[in-house]
Specification:
mainly alpha; two-stranded antiparallel sheet; 8 helices; 5 strands; about 60% helix; globular
């Protein structure tokens, strides 16, 4: 199963939305609109309210389409809303810190890397079509992934200290047993110190991000709108 390119696995971090755009979208999409003939049509719906902002149903659907493309199946609606809410928390913090958005070249490289996981460019396009997601949406989501993951790295890396004992413990207790189980050659520790250090740093960043999100989530007012309650 293909995995997301995002480094902090704990929350998913897959949707392409911006917190400052929620209110504008809510005003234009959370209720009915009239066509030229006067008939009412539902453009979009509100999936959840977070403080004074919203998550829209289209964002929930788009996240599901991306998950289907990358992982083969979409998570349950409640799980997707939770992931979007976690992204909202990080987005607000990153925007407040005026964190720099990724360059277009970085997004292009992420898109190329994702497409390369499929047997051919044609297969990738077919899978996008089957999942119901456009190239523009994939690029937007990847850009959001980069933005949010880089912010978490920026915020938590300074405190993610790894010493030699931790590196040796990982090598002896996790890395070596895994290779032996697969009957693979075990490289010497000295060849892997930097790689293992980064693995452990990323693990610490993920743990600290989880703790921070749990605490932040407990302070927020998040109201999920069930599908049966939507107008």
């Amino acid at each position: 199963m293909r995995r997301s390119l995002l480094i902090f696995v704990c929350v998913g971090w897959l949707a392409g939305f911006m917190a400052r755009g929620y209110i504008a979208r809510a005003q234009s999409s959370s209720g009915p609109s009239r066509t030229a003939g006067g008939a009412e049509t539902i453009v979009d719906g509100v999936a959840a309210r977070i403080e004074d902002d919203i998550l829209t149903e289209s964002e929930v659907r788009e996240l599901g389409a991306f998950q289907k493309l990358v992982d083969g199946a979409a998570k349950a609606r409640a799980d997707r809303i939770r992931e979007l809410a976690d992204q909202w928390i990080v987005r607000v913090e990153a925007d407040a810190a005026k964190f720099e958005a990724p360059a277009s070249g970085d997004v292009d490289r992420a898109y190329t890397k994702l497409a390369a996981q499929f047997p051919s460019p044609e297969e990738f396009k077919d899978r996008c079509a089957a999942a119901g997601i456009t190239e523009a949406a994939v690029r937007r989501i990847l850009g959001q992934q980069l933005y949010l993951s880089r912010f978490l790295d920026y915020r938590f890396r300074p405190a993610a200290q790894v010493d030699q004992k931790q590196i040796e413990a990982y090598y002896n207790n996790e890395f070596v047993p895994q290779l032996k189980t697969r009957n693979q050659t075990v490289p010497p520790l000295d060849d892997l110190r930097d790689t293992i250090r980064e693995v452990l740093i990323q693990r610490t960043i993920s743990e600290r991000a989880n703790e921070w999100l749990d605490e932040a989530r407990s302070r927020l007012k998040i109201d999920v709108i069930s599908e049966g309650d939507r107008p």
